[in-house]
Specification:
Elements: E1 2-3, H1 10-17, H2 33-45, H3 62-75, H4 79-90, H5 100-113, H6 125-131, H7 144-157, H8 162-171, H9 192-207, H10 214-226, E2 234-235, E3 244-245, H11 246-256, H12 261-272, H13 289-295, H14 304-318, E4 340-344, E5 347-356, E6 359-374, E7 377-391, E8 414-416, E9 419-425, E10 434-448, E11 454-469
Parallel strand pairs: 7-11
Antiparallel strand pairs: 1-6, 2-3, 4-5, 5-6, 6-7, 8-9, 9-10, 10-11
């Protein structure tokens, strides 16, 4: 019989997870995520030398570059790619900071990416937007798009004034739609794009506990659903963008994400039909069917800006998520969350990951010399030995409620399977948004003797066993 220096309890970890409530499924099935990946990859290739994207020639379009950063977060771009777009737009941002709608978009993008929202390109986006909220609730100088971005940005960075919801509700048409401009009393030209953005703003308000947002949001959702064409597409403003197009369809999918799955899926499938599938421009998405047919799979220099703009919005149809919840996807890193064999810091590591409940669990082992007890004698052995388990951040903290591996209980800890455990959460040791669990175990140690051989010691102590990372299904 042999006993290793660390007593493992993998069955215990599984048993503790069994009663977990399941987190809500993501809005999309994931079937179109490869489309999002190729779309983002194509956008990366269109990046100018200065790091921006362009609507015309190589002239920097800061708003479009921020759109790409948002699309990158939805579509699974690396943090390096997302940050490079944000940084590039920031170089000249002070020159356009008088445009409140653009500042509001920057505020949302920065908050979503986990960047500073008070210092960007020489200005303070959060202060600009907060100080621009008038007594009526209108964010001064904005159209519906800018108002929506401003509300979402304020909600993501602190308090959202309830007056903004009152203002928006007062601008809503009787049908539930919103116009492209404010104070359109006739409501003769209801705009699906503006309505989609207002839905996202009202969803943000609801998330902040503003109950008055519920009724106008419900009316707007019902109106927007009714605008979906049999093909699955949406049109935009009846005067300027009346055709079925991927821009409007992507924004609508984002607005309806997690609310109306069937509508979102249908929109995504239509948009996928306008994506170039092969060749140098694989991943690019056409604005509409006519553009796709004329291109015949090749994006020309003339009109490329339209493809770039369409592709940034189309990503939202492939990986739908509203702007209040959009964040960069979780990036796996060696050795604890990236499956495979790794050589790090002069040590060999081996990690395997498997689906678990609504998340994944990764088991990490390290090649090490351990001490075991065989037939009453201590023996040193080289081999793979358990290091820790990591539960990936694809479940919210509330989804772990009731599980002692995910709630702070250092004193007195808890007992399970006859073993003593304790867990710490949100401490300097764990960092915000995570817990570490420790198991009281018997540990053997070997110390070299001056005359040769080893001296062995035995100790009972708390040993790190696993980490639970909190997050969201949207982080996949």
């Amino acid at each position: 019989m042999q006993r290793r220096f660390r007593l493992l309890a993998l069955p215990l970890a599984a048993m503790l997870l069994a009663p977990l409530g399941l987190s809500p499924a993501a809005a999309d099935s994931g079937a179109l995520r490869p489309n999002a990946t190729t779309a983002v990859s194509w956008l990366v290739k269109q990046t100018n030398a200065d790091g921006t994207l362009s609507s015309t020639g190589t002239e920097p379009d800061l708003g479009l570059t921020l759109d790409a950063a948002l699309a990158g977060m939805a579509g699974g771009a690396s943090r390096a790619t997302i940050n490079s777009w944000i940084d590039a737009a920031g170089k000249s941002f002070k020159n356009v900071s008088q445009d409140k709608g653009r500042v509001a978009k920057a505020l949302v993008t920065l908050a979503a990416a986990g960047r500073s929202t008070t210092s960007y390109g020489g200005v303070n986006p959060q202060q600009i937007i907060r100080s621009s909220v008038t007594a009526s609730g209108h964010i001064e100088g904005t159209l519906p798009f800018g108002q929506a971005f401003g509300m979402i940005g304020l909600a993501r960075t602190g308090e959202l004034p309830t007056s903004t919801v009152g203002f928006v509700a007062g601008q809503q048409c009787a049908s539930g739609a919103f116009s492209r401009v404010f104070d359109d009393k006739s409501c003769a030209a209801p705009d699906p794009d503006s309505t989609a953005m207002m839905i996202m703003a009202l969803r943000a308000a609801e998330a902040k506990g503003i109950a008055a947002a519920n009724a106008p949001r419900t009316k707007a959702v019902n109106w927007l659903k009714a605008q979906q064409k049999p093909s699955g597409a949406f049109t935009g403003d009846p005067q300027y963008t009346p055709t079925q197009n991927t821009n409007s369809s992507g924004i609508a999918a984002a607005a309806l994400a997690d609310l109306e799955t069937a509508f979102v899926t249908k929109a995504g499938m239509w948009v996928s039909g306008l994506q170039v599938k092969s060749g140098a421009d694989a991943g690019a998405v056409a604005y509409n069917a006519e553009t796709m047919q004329a291109a015949n799979g090749v994006v020309s220099r003339v009109g490329k800006g339209q493809w770039v703009r369409a592709t940034t919005q189309a990503v939202l149809a492939f990986a739908p998520i509203d702007f209040f919840r959009i964040i960069p996807r979780f990036e796996r890193t060696a050795p604890y969350t990236l499956a495979g064999n790794h050589d790090l810091n002069g040590r060999k590591w081996r990690t395997t990951c498997e689906p678990y409940s609504k998340t994944e669990r990764c088991r990490t082992e390290i090649w090490a010399t351990t001490v075991v007890k065989e037939n009453g004698r201590f023996v040193r052995k080289d081999g793979w030995t358990f290091n820790n388990l990591t539960y990936l951040p694809y479940m919210t903290e509330s989804s772990w409620t009731g599980n002692p591996l995910a709630s702070h209980n250092m004193d007195p800890g808890f007992t399970s399977g006859g073993r003593q455990w304790r867990t710490e959460c949100h401490t300097p040791n764990t960092g915000k948004g995570a817990c570490r669990a420790y198991l009281f175990s018997t540990v053997y140690a070997a110390s070299p003797r001056a005359g040769g051989g080893y001296s062995f010691a035995q100790e009972d102590k708390w040993v790190f066993n696993n980490i639970v990372m909190f997050g969201s299904p949207a982080w996949r």
